[in-house]
Amino acid sequence: MRILTALLVVSGTLAIGGASLARDVHLPKTSADQLKQICDKVGGSFSQGTARYGCGTDCKGNKGTDCLVSCEPDKPCDAQGIGGKRPRSVEQALMPNKKK
């Protein structure tokens, strides 16, 4: 029973800690064509639905979608990235973090 309780506490701590590393940022309006061009440039994965379009990349420079930019036509875009990134543009939001 103690082991189960300890595992639940550790799991909860890691989940809360991981969530605190994510950051949501509002970015300027970007058309689907503009976002696709930027997405291709940074090696991301572009997708488009009926109401939204977006791009995802892995902030570590691998394949994946740790960094996301999601947009609606004629509205500011939303970006979500992992870590302390403070992007001011869609491209900055999708670029991999620089290695230290």
Describe the structure using short key phrases.
100 residues; five-stranded antiparallel β-sheet; 3 helices; alpha+beta; disordered N terminus
Q: Could you characterize the architecture of this molecule?
A:
By secondary structure, this protein is of the alpha+beta class. The chain has one domain (22-94). Helix content is 35%, strand content 29%. A five-stranded antiparallel β-sheet has the order 1-5-4-3-2. The radius of gyration is 16 Å and the shape is globular. 20% of the residues are buried.
Helix and strand run = HEHEEEEH
Poorly predicted parts:
1-20
Count of domains:
1
DSSP strand tally:
5
**What is the end-to-end distance?**
42 Å
Spatial arrangement of strands, main beta sheet = 1-5-4-3-2
